[in-house]
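Colleagues,

For the teaching module next term, I've prepared a clean inverse folding example: a structure given as tokens, and then the sequence designed for it. I'd like students to try predicting residues themselves before seeing the answer, so please don't circulate the second half yet.
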């Protein structure tokens, strides 16, 4: 009987060990999946970081280009104003001084001004194209569709006389 108990215990112990091993295998598999997911997320974040860094570098480059363009515009206006002052062309000097005063002081202001100029130019181009289309439409209209103007002579008098006859006949 003791051997039966011992054998039963060994079987139960073996089954428990198999169950524990299965649980450990499942936990290991889940851990491996979690590690793979974490590695994939880390790679995705690394790629996002690279994209961010590239976008930030491009934004800095574009900002620098706009800053240099603004500084160049300012220095050119200053040089022209100084030349006008030296030549004592006070009207030109005042005009250039006003342009200097109205010049944007920030890159953002410079960009806004340029965007407004681009919008205005586009609107003007659209208006010019529309005016051109209207002019072309007027040119395409044949003038012979207009009613003929009455001319002096028999035809005009005959029309008047015809109307008089109708009035007389109606009495």
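(Answer key — instructors only)
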């Amino acid at each position: 009987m003791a051997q039966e108990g011992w054998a039963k215990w060994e079987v139960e112990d073996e089954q428990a060990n198999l169950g524990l091993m299965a649980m450990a295998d499942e936990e290991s598999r889940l851990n491996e999946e979690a590690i793979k997911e974490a590695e994939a997320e880390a790679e995705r974040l690394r790629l996002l970081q690279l994209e961010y860094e590239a976008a930030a570098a491009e934004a800095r480059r574009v900002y620098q280009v706009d800053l240099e363009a603004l500084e160049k515009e300012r220095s050119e206006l200053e040089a022209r104003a100084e030349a006008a002052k030296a030549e004592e062309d006070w009207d030109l000097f005042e005009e250039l001084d006003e342009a200097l005063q109205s010049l944007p002081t920030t890159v953002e202001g410079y960009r806004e001004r340029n965007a407004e100029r681009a919008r205005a130019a586009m609107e003007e181009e659209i208006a010019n194209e529309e005016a051109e289309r209207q002019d072309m439409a007027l040119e395409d209209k044949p003038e012979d569709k207009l009613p003929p103007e009455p001319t002096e002579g028999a035809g005009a008098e005959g029309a008047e006389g015809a109307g008089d006859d109708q009035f007389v006949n109606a009495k």
